[in-house]
Amino acid sequence: KEREEKKLILNTISVWTEVNQSKKRFHNPLYELNTKQIIPCCSAKKLRFWDNFFLRWESSLAVQEDIESKVAFLMLQIEKKQNTLQSFQKALMRRSSNFTGRFNP
Fold first, then answer.
1. Over the stretch 40-68, which tens digit does the pLDDT of each residue have?
2. Residue 7: left (phi > 0), alpha (psi -120 to 50), or beta?
């Protein structure tokens, strides 16, 4: 009743509107249609514990260290990318100043 009173159907859109209008954005290029039945392997040798999933709320030191090492690695990657960007920007500035200097009357 409250939804009808506030006329929500007129003021909101479905998430599917965005998905259907931007299909390329949400397309998984790795998807392969499989019409066969999927039978999982339950062998003990094949079982894996998904620690990133099952321990995601665990506050133990081992998990915390893993997160900290990942953050440190990502920060290093960011720093490298920023340095590369700065190098490209400097090279671009040098080239553009050389280019404009040649054609000034």
1. 888 888 888 887 787 777 766 565 677 77
2. left
Measured distance CA(86)–CA(88) in Å, rounded: 5
**Contact between residue 63 and residue 51 where contact means Cβ atoms under 8 Å apart:** yes
26 CB contacts (<8 Å, ≥6 apart)? 19
- Which two three-digit tokens encode residue 60? 């133990």
pTM: 0.35
Q: How far is CA 71 from the centre of its chain?
A: 15
Sequence-distant (6+) residues with CB within 8 A of 63 are: 51, 55
Would you state the pLDDT for residue 40? 86
Residue 26 half-sphere exposure toward CB, CA atoms < 13 A:
9
